[in-house]
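F.,

This is the one I mentioned.
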């Protein structure tokens, strides 16, 4: 008789047969990768909140501890560490988000849409933040840029590296993608990941006051939405992030 893909009914392994036990022992254990990813994501989120506290202390306290000045370096190290562990756990961090958007015109449209939404929401919501919190975002940390070309150049360089691409990698690629993967990559998982990363992103900017937390949480939702629309490509959100920050920096410089 010819060999077929299907076994005859009388050749099926019985539940207690040794061959069946051996075959079952070779099957991968479901959920191990997602559990590992969940642990990594929780540790990473806690680390980011620790960075938020260090940044707040560094800006707000008159005599901050020396550790606070290393908040950015700690944040970079945490991001690299979490990315490596998530990749080893099986999370699909494809090229860490540095993938081409399938349709270039769509990527450009996402960038323009993101900047427009951020600028419009900032203009509309600033009066609301002032009413609710008594003041707008506290940007005194960047006051040294005013009228200083040298300080402007340094801040723009940091903006396009640590802020634009660094924060998009940390929050939208590593954190958001990790949460979605750990929760099963369902639509509900994507929604939860989008909200959680935006909230943590807002808290990391607590040094800007309550209005800063609220404003950057909304920015996190916008950047996360751009990343989802771009199918996990970092480019639209990172460029929109950099451009939006550049507009704000130039306003501080010329004020």
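My design for it:
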């Amino acid at each position: 008789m010819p060999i077929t893909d299907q076994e005859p009914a009388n050749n099926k392994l019985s539940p207690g047969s040794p061959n069946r036990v051996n075959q079952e022992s070779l099957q991968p254990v479901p959920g191990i990768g997602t559990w590992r990813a969940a642990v990594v994501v929780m540790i990473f989120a806690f680390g980011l909140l620790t960075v938020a506290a260090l940044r707040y202390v560094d800006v707000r306290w008159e005599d901050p501890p020396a550790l606070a000045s290393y908040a950015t370096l700690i944040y970079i190290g945490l991001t690299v560490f979490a990315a490596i562990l998530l990749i080893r756990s099986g999370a699909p961090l494809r090229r860490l988000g540095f993938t081409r958007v399938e349709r270039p015109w769509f990527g450009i449209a996402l960038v323009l849409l993101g900047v427009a939404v951020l600028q419009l929401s900032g203009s509309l919501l600033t009066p609301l933040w002032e009413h609710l919190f008594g003041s707008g975002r506290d940007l005194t940390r960047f006051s040294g840029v005013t009228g200083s070309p040298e300080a402007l150049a340094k801040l723009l360089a940091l903006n396009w590296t640590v802020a634009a691409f660094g924060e998009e990698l940390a929050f939208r690629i590593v954190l958001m993608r990790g949460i979605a993967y750990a929760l099963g990559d369902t639509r509900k998982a994507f929604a939860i990941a989008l909200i959680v990363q935006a909230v943590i992103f807002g808290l990391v900017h607590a040094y800007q006051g309550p209005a800063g937390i609220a404003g950057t949480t909304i920015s996190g939702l916008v950047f996360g939405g751009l990343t989802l629309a771009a199918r996990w490509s970092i480019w639209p959100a990172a460029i929109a992030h950099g451009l939006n920050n550049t507009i704000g920096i130039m306003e501080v410089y010329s004020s």
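The two ends are 87 Å apart (CA to CA).

Talk soon.
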